[in-house]
Design brief:
Layout lengths: L4 H13 L4 H14 L5 H10 L4 H9 L9 H12 L1
Length: 85
């Protein structure tokens, strides 16, 4: 049974808020609040996959300390820009 979109978005917002390191909580919560509702299903699926990545890796990608893997590079740039606003 497929998860309804409203439930999926709520789950992703909660996972964005409770990452493990406070910096990623703040960064991903800001991004989720600003963008999740307007995302296409393919983008939501990519964000869901991104949330399975390690916080330390995510933080390095968002802050530019390391290059993000190709499938995430565009989304990581958007996350970094959203948080800087």
């Amino acid at each position: 049974m497929e998860e309804p979109r409203a439930y999926r978005l709520k789950r992703l917002k909660m996972r964005s808020m409770r990452r493990g390191i406070k910096e990623m909580d703040l960064i991903l919560t800001a991004y989720a609040e600003a963008n999740l509702e307007g995302m296409a299903e393919s983008e939501v699926a990519l964000y869901d996959a991104l949330l399975h990545e390690n916080d330390q890796d995510l933080y390095q990608w968002v802050t530019g300390q390391a290059d993000a893997p190709g499938q995430y590079s565009g989304m990581i740039k958007n996350i970094a820009q959203t948080f800087q606003k």
